[in-house]
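Journal club side-thread
Mid-discussion, someone asked how the predicted structure for our own chain would compare to the paper's figures. Pasting it here so we can look after the session.
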Amino acid sequence: MLLDSEKQAAADKVFEILEHSAAFLLAEKILMYHSLPDELPTHGFLKKWTGRKKFYLPRVNGVNLEILPYEESRLELGAFHIEEPTGLDTVDAGEIELVVVPAVAYDKNGNRLGRGKGFYDRLLASTSATKVGVAFDFQVVEVIPAEEHDVPMDIVISPSGCRIIQKKRIRRK
């Protein structure tokens, strides 16, 4: 089990790599996640960049994820004890340019092992945004069996570095 200071040190490295990536620098609308205690912490990163980037968070709605603007004052405990945004101002996944995705594990081909409900796979299948998996080093493994419906990441970042899985054309507006 990692100490909070170790988790934060790993997050600092990962998000520093992300901040310097073309995918992040060119994106204006970014879907993040609001981290759980066992995930790479995102709260500091969100605070750091709020106002300079437009962040969105997912909210569980039945078997799907909705996308809503991130405002710290509009968060409340939602499904699975995750803080989620409130309101009715949902955004279409097609508007998002970059998605930062949590996982239980990633492999070196960008395959992702989630928590088993398929929420992110359904969401990721509906967007052409660049998909970035972020993880602790121990979460990056050699192989994760992938199924037809699984959506691989374009980039996987851990504290030890960045792995570009699929080269994408970055949309400019």
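Post-session note: The mean pLDDT is 91.
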